[in-house]
Write a structure and sequence with these properties.
The protein is of the alpha+beta class. The chain is 29% helix and 8% strand. The chain has a two-stranded parallel sheet. Strand 1, helix 1 and strand 2 form a beta-alpha-beta unit. The longest helix has 13 residues. The model has no long low-confidence stretch (mean pLDDT 84).
């Protein structure tokens, strides 16, 4: 079984140094999977039908997952 973690996108505010530190510490702990979420279709809450219920909006800092993983590699 591979044990991993989810990258806390909005909590670390998109800071590249925090991303690297987080990934390094996860690897030191023996974790082998890092999950990163994205909102490619947008997260604009205004005028949506049905209403969006998630905690994220268009103002939250999300890394593009492909760029993020390439940067970490």
């Amino acid at each position: 079984m591979k044990v991993g973690i989810v990258y806390p996108q909005i909590e670390l505010q998109g800071d590249p140094a925090s991303l690297v530190a987080y990934a390094i510490e996860a690897e030191k702990l023996g974790l082998r999977q890092l999950v990163a979420y994205d909102h490619p279709l947008g997260a604009e809450h205004a005028n949506r039908d049905p209403k969006l219920t998630g905690p994220y909006t268009q103002d939250d800092p999300f890394h593009d997952p492909f760029m993020m993983f390439a940067y970490l590699a």
